[in-house]
Amino acid sequence: MKALVYTGPNTLVYRDEPDTAPEPGEVLVRVEAVGICGSDMHAYHGHDTRRPPPLILGHEAAGRIVSGPRAGQRVTINPLVVDPTCPYAVDGRWHLSPTRQIISMPPRPGAFADLVRIPERNLFPVPDHLSIEHAALAEPIAVAWHAVRIGAERLHQPLTVSSVVILGGGAIGLAAALVVRRFGATAIRIGETNPLRRQTIARAEGLAVFAPGASGEPAEGSVDLVIDAVGAVGTRAAACSLVRPGGVIVHVGLLPGQDGLDLRKITLQEITVTGAYCYTPTDFRHTVDALAEGVLGALSWFEVRTLAEGPTAFADLDDGRTAANKIILLPGA
Question: What's the half-sphere exposure (Cβ side, CA atoms, 13 Å) at 277?
Answer without folding.
Answer: 11
